[in-house]
Amino acid sequence: xRTVRMARTAVTFVCALFAVVLVFQIILVLAEANAANGFASxxxxxxxxxSLGFDGLFSPDSAxxxxxxxxxxxxxxxxxxxxxxxxxxxxFALPGPRVPQA
Length: 102
Description:
Blueprint: H1 2-30, H2 38-49, H3 63-93
Keywords: Membrane, Transmembrane, Transmembrane helix
């Protein structure tokens, strides 16, 4: 039981971290942060790595809108991945009958 809880916590933490990094990138782009800054550069690189290929999915005229839609969609997908993985871990790793939780 403890191992299952730890696995679910790890999945939630990693997926939420990726979603938060994507949201930080959106905020930095919308606020026109200095791209030469170390923090902004780190977030830009990290968000590019966890964007799940959503970088060019939407291509509106505005670069800010493109970042908002593309990285926003990727952040939502990371949250959905977290929920799906947690459901699967709970469903298949816990023994016994399934009792609805209140």
